[in-house]
Amino acid sequence: MVKNSGGPIIRMSSAPSHGAGGIACCWCRCCTCIHIEFLKTLPGAVKLAETLISGMIQSLLINYGLRYSSTIGSAYESSLTTASGCFFTSALLLACYIVSEKTYRLIRSSLFEMLFNAIASFLYLSSASYLFFSTKFFLGPQYYITPGFEVYPAMIAAYMLSGVVGVIHGIDAYFSLQQFRGR
Description:
Layout: E1 23-25, E2 28-30, H1 42-65, H2 69-72, H3 74-99, H4 101-108, H5 111-145, H6 151-181
Antiparallel strand pairs: 1-2
């Protein structure tokens, strides 16, 4: 009889979750280390959506809001910090999941993935509400007075997209929790 030493036990399923992997070229498969099939799954589509929307939010904030960051205040900084951090982490996880199926199976069901998505959801939703308030209060009056004031619609799009991606991260956190529990 073998006694457990109390260390962690990692069990990996033998069934592939992404398919054969690689890219189909005529009669063969190329680059079998890449698992494009992951993007066809629900977790892959969600992770891709998180990455793309975070990138759009960051682009809107930098291209339109940077000149008005002193007017918007700390709401701009919190939104930009949230978008930058979550974009980088989501893009890194997406790249790891596409390149390595083993990484997907290990990280996806880990505490890191669940906590990252839960915290990202909270940060996006709170920064969206803060940016909403600052945009309406500080930029709203200037938008109605100054013609061609394009930062106002861009910041509206940024806080709306932040709310959307916050909900997506919340859903992803729920799915990660289910996978963490083993269901």
